[in-house]
Request: fold
Amino acid sequence: MHVDERTARELRGLARVLVRSGYADHAAITAALTEAVQQDAPSMDAASLVPLLIGEAVMDLDAEAAGWPASTDPDRLDTVLSELESRGLVVVRYTSDHHAAREALEAADNPRGLVFFTDTDVWHAVDFGMLELKLWHPDTGNVAPGEPLLEDVLALLHQHDLPAVFDEGRIEVTLNWQRRVTL
Reply:
């Protein structure tokens, strides 16, 4: 039983972004990788392969994390998100889609707005150093350039040394995705 190099590379890449996201727990990572192995490498034993993929991704991350600064970009992002929550915005992290974010907004009592990002936004940030934040008004409408809500969020990001610009309906935050992970 053998996996071609492209499939092996893709499975290692999936394990890498799932582990490095810092949001998925061991069970969620295992489930996602098991599904990927069953779909992309059905001749392989997922129960044997998945722990190896996770282990390799964790070892690589741990080795790299030894050289990280005490406060990383995701640490500063967490501070910004907590501040936004304290200002009355609903914050949804690492959601599967905008429907779940909208449900959280609609369930909130008198929210000032919603800030959210999806799992795939985080995976993109892991690989490419840019996280897309969506910012909505309480009625689920996107913010627009020049609006006070948008300006406040951008100012807070910049105050915490997170370069950010508003482009095509989303805030693009430039960051080095260095989130410490315990699995």
The mean pLDDT is 96.
